[in-house]
Amino acid sequence: MSYYTEKKVATSHKQDLKVKKQLEITDFTAFSRKELEDMVVGLQSDNEQLKQKEDDKILELKANLEAVIENTDDFIVSVTTSYRILVCNNAYRWLIHELYGVDPKSGDHILGMMDPQTQAFWHPYYEKAFAGQAALTIVNREIQGTEKFYEVTFHPITRANGQTDGATIFIKDITDRKVVEDTIRENQKMLASINRNIKEGIYRSTPKEGLIYVNKAYLDMFGYEKKEEMYSLDVSQLYADPEVYKDTVELLLSGGEINNEEIVYARKDGSHFYGMMSSQVWNDEEGNSYYDGAIRDMTEIIETKHQLREQNEELRKVNAELDRFVYSTSHDLRAPLMSISGLISISKMVDDTEKQMYYYSLMEQSITKLDNFIQDIINFSRNARTEIEIKAIQPKELIQHCQEDLQFASQYEHIRFQIETGEVDTVYSDEKRLSVILKNLLANAARYHDLEKEDPYILVQVHKKENAFQLVVKDNGQGIQPKVIDKIFDMFYRGSNQSKGTGLGLYIAKEAIEKMGGKIWVESALGEGSTFFVEIPQSLQIEAAS
Ligand code: ADP
Known about the structure:
By secondary structure, the protein is of the alpha+beta class. It has helices at 14-21, 33-45, 47-53, 56-71, 90-100, 116-130, 175-197, 216-222, 227-231, 242-253, 299-349, 353-385, 395-406, 431-447, 505-515, 539-545; strands at residues 2-9, 75-80, 85-88, 134-143, 146-158, 164-173, 201-206, 210-214, 258-266, 272-283, 289-297, 390-393, 416-420, 427-430, 457-465, 468-475, 519-525, 529-537.
């Protein structure tokens, strides 16, 4: 047993009652429930007068009303203020029998058939009715194994002089209504929960009013806090391109529907996001049109798509590099080994120490070449595998350091070396990568020099740029032929047969520069010299270093 609700119902029916008594009533179906209730209450309250007057008309009315009481679906009982049953209908008798296993009769105590707990529950309602106030409550009971809900209304029986003689209780089976109400409430709860938790932005708009409903995901997607804020918007503002909005509305109004259309939307802060939208028009009976739709934020998926494309591109590049790498390394590793092996065979055959020494020096060259090659491979692999490590670097010192490392190259002693760092005493960059880049550029500038020139030089400059720094390595050496200049940064590309390098130097430099978000380019004139420019951004790197 549970108690649901209690409402006060307005009491006075006296006015209506007088009017009804003067009517000749034959068709009771023409009366509303309220009117019937009033008549029943009236029948009780004017009982004494009825007896006195013995009026035929009124007796007929009484008979008819009793017939109504019997034929109605409601359970009806009237009691005196001393809790004695005055009159009750068959439906009530049946109900009491089902509930308490007794058959109530006129004169029985209405609470006498109930257990003390039930008595205690009903007692206050009777007291209230006897005090002249109507009351209403809803209870549930198990009848024949099913849960039933009843609306119980207490009407006081009040005489013309205001005295209350008793009460009439109307009990109505509202189980069906309750089930419908509960289902609606459950559905509403479920819908509210779905609308709150669903990731899709759900909305309803009308051509005239704009948005009239949005869920939480919709608000979040567009960066708004309050629904009302969105309801007062011009919907086209939510589109990155208002033309797209126009087309969408036109399509919907011409009876079309939109299915999973990718649309760029604008957030409150002006930023854009990709949404997948589905929408259709719904027309109600009064001819009003509604656009109902859902939007899914696709930003993450589209970003992942882009990321995937980039990764694929990288993979493709790595695969192509690997092919070339295997092909070239097998040649570049074998060539110096074969040459060393040949030189060993020859030197075994000669006794002349001077000749032997010459062969040894040739062997040494092959070994150096092999070592350079392996060093280049290590640098290449390191660039690909290791993360960028930013720190403050003094460029002048780094350049000097790289130059010293290269000093052993024989051409160096004939080349004038000049460093100009101007005001740039610190740059923020990855020292290991920067030194690989510098060494490769310096080694090339020395290797491809023209010692016939009057003043062979290598000039290294450092310039400050907006959010970046620039390295310039300039020589007045052989220069590069225009037809090959586009290829010199390719893997294993050697510009001429004279190249004693691995063909990896500039490729490695370019890879390292790009990894740091920078770029490299060259200006060159054949016979006059070459200038290599390297630009590396710094803004992010300063943040990373600090
Ligand atoms: P290599 O090992 O052949 O030097 P690199 O990748 O370092 O490989 O350079 C590729 C080619 O670019 C070289 O073979 C050479 O023809 C040309 N090159 C690079 N630097 C210079 C320079 N400073 N002057 C002239 N040519 C250069």
